[in-house]
Amino acid sequence: MVRVYISGPISHIRQSMMNFQKSEFDLESKGYETYNPFSILLPSTKEEKDEYNKVGEWVWYMRRCIPELVNCDAVLLLPNWQESRGAKLEKELAETLKIKVYESIEDIDELRKS
């Protein structure tokens, strides 16, 4: 099964969450496995909270997202991804690791043909 990492701006939580969830639903309805960064829970253990406080929110979340990204077959960039420091980093890393990067779900369907 093709696994797709969903990447995009997260700053405006409510709208971003809706965009991520819609993309996740659309991909899964086409038979793709997905990774949605919104699935990461807030730090709960003392160790996680200590790390979160030490490195900051953005770094803490990226440290959890990157291992997921490297285990995906493709990355879907959501609209306005260029405005996101994290999405730009994820795109660059995916390209460096030869993970296909797409800006639309329709384009991802080419993975099934290859």
Which strands sit side by side, in order, in the main sheet? Answer: 2-1-3-4
Task: Please identify the structural class as seen in this structure.
Answer: alpha/beta
Major sheet characteristics: 4 strands, parallel
- Average per-residue pLDDT, rounded, comes to 92
Q: Approximately how much beta-strand content do the residues carry?
A: 5-15%
Commentary on this structure:
The protein is of the alpha/beta class. Helices cover 53% and strands 13% of the residues. The chain has helices spanning 13-29, 46-55, 57-69, 85-96, 105-108, 110-113, and strands spanning 3-7, 33-35, 74-77, 100-102. Strand 1, helix 1 and strand 2 form a beta-alpha-beta unit.
What is the topology?
Layout: E1 3-7, H1 13-29, E2 33-35, H2 46-55, H3 57-69, E3 74-77, H4 85-96, E4 100-102, H5 105-108, H6 110-113
Parallel strand pairs: 1-2, 1-3, 3-4
Helix pairs in contact: 2-3
